[in-house]
Amino acid sequence: MELFADRAQAGALLAERLQDVHDPVVLALPRGGVAVAVPIARRLGVALDVLVTRKIGYPPAPELGVGAIAEGGEPVFDLSLLRRLGMTPESVADVVEQERHELARRVHAYRGDRPLPSLEGREVIVVDDGLATGSTARAALRAVNAAKPAKVTLAVPVGARETVRSLQEEADEVIAVITPIDFRAVGQWYEHFDQLSDADVLDLLDSV
């Protein structure tokens, strides 16, 4: 299976599948989702904004996500994973608090004092650069759904097949360009998958 050259090319391919929408709100999950969402917003002729999310890591191994939180929403946990680790949501309360602070910092960095656009009664497209476990996307979708939109679409270039299937319970539609069986990490499906900085995100938002 061919790789995406980079996030911009992946976003252009994804945009081709997002034509049947009416005046949507496009929300990208920083940081990587913003680069994917730029060509989508341009193709649809709409503004681009961010919906900030943070992974909640397992304290002994923070790279292992046991949940996530999105701005405007409550923490969403992988309860079965927590049980296997012998933990509860209360066990990671300190991590949640740390991530709330980082989430607030990023919201201010990306949006300043400007609130999220109103989502009630609108079509909303949530964009990320890929789905592995889907924890941050799940938190984002639940936060969006709480705002009573008319329709919610999750759009990603690539996603683990089981994750894409599970997130269909959280969105009206999940669109993925590819859903490979042999999925190990999002980055393996891109030729160039550079880490983005806050400055990169701001530059991308200004480019739309």
Outline the fold blueprint.
Layout (H helix, E strand, L loop, with lengths): L6 H9 L9 E4 L3 H13 L3 E3 L2 E6 L2 E10 L5 E2 L1 H6 L8 H19 L11 E5 L7 H11 L5 E8 L2 H7 L5 E6 L19 H9 L2
Helix pairs in contact: 1-2
Structure description:
The chain is of the alpha/beta class and about 210 residues long. The protein folds into two domains: about 5-50 and about 120-205, Rossmann fold, CATH 3.40.50.2020; about 55-110, Ybab, Chain: A (2-Layer Sandwich), CATH 3.30.1310. It is built from seven helices and eight strands, in the order αβαββββααβαβαβα. It has helices at about 5-15, 30-45, 80-85, 95-110, 135-145, 160-165, 200-205, and strands spanning about 25-30, 50, 55-60, 60-70, 75, 125, 150-160, 175-180. The strands form two sheets. A five-stranded parallel sheet has the order 2-1-6-7-8, with helices on both faces. A three-stranded antiparallel sheet has the order 3-4-5. A hairpin with a 5-residue loop joins strand 4 and strand 5 (about 75). The radius of gyration is 16 Å and the shape is globular. The two termini are about 30 Å apart. The model has no long low-confidence stretch (mean pLDDT about 95).
